[in-house]
Amino acid sequence: QVHLVESGGGSVQAGGSLRLSCAASGDNLSRSCMGWFRQAPGKEREAVATSCRYGPKTYADSVKGRFTVSQDNAENTLYLQMSSLKPEDTAMYYCAAGWTRSNFVYWGQGTQVTVSS
Question: Which of 13, 20, 22, 79 is the most exposed place for a label (fewest CB within 10 A)?
Fold first, then answer.
């Protein structure tokens, strides 16, 4: 079992920055891959960035060059540094964990990010 708690969301003006954090606890093997997803009202959930023990980090095309995913293994925390934020980045952001990039089975409750123009 894995427990994920996100924090760091908030409201910011376009061009601003935020850093999201995801505190993870539980079975280490089940956290071989971790990632950030987002869902805006009326839209499907999309993968924003993933970080797995093996393989490169991945990013959605819409956030490449602006967002950076990182992990602090000592603190069991996943981060998402978001810069040059745009109104279209407004969404609920979720942290997820799983065995592979195609198998995220554990989800946090989400943290809201709102970007105003």
Answer: 13
